[in-house]
Amino acid sequence: LPWSCVFFTGLYLLGYWVVFARRWPRGAVDRFKAASCCMSIVHGTSTSMAAAIYMMHLKHTKSRLGAANTRFEEAIMEYSTAYFLVDLVHYLLFVPNQPLFVLHHVFTSSYMLSCCFYTGHGAFSTIVLFVVGESTSFLQNVWTISLITHSAKLFNLLNVPFLIIFSIFRGVLTPWATWQLCLYFLFSREASAVVPFPLALYWMWSVFMGISGSLYWVSTHWAKLMSK
């Protein structure tokens, strides 16, 4: 976890001081946002691909939900938690007017930290959520960069496809996966033996809040598009 925090901090500084240094003056909010996108592209792409490959090599995925965490599962959680913690500091210090992203990072980080360092079980649920939740990360960050850099051609090319894909993943696939997790963690005796019910309820509530925030966010952009 500490080395992953160093890694993502390095990506952030690389984006701020090198990649986008000439685009905006020092201290510009958009320069901070673009630096955050550098971290997010690497995190989202790597975690979604690693999680998908991992799931493809498992024969019985459902049985993994209540099993003890594997070293790979804990490693990917620590790696991902580091990203959310570094990005959370970014929002608190430089873009504090984004409460949806702040709350999302707090819920997500607490979910993974408790799963990794408290229960020692349930890490596979985060693997499932990485696949459905982070698969749109690359496209979202390219879209965001095109928006804040005012790259009209790229933004117009990506806008509608991105909103459609994001809506499908966050409005259909993620809720379906979350419902499957709820059925297991909230109504399964096997789950209650390894994950306390109040904590399992908090996990599912955190994911539900994350989905709600994502749908609210994308709906605002659909509204902007329709108004044009």
TrEMBL record:
PROSITE patterns: TLC (PS50922). Residues 29-216 form the TLC domain. It is found in: Membrane. The keyword Cell cycle does not apply. It is a multi-pass membrane protein. The keyword Transmembrane applies. GO terms for cellular component: membrane. Keywords: Membrane, Transmembrane, Transmembrane helix. The chain crosses the membrane at residues 6-22, 34-56, 160-187, 199-218. This is TLC domain-containing protein.
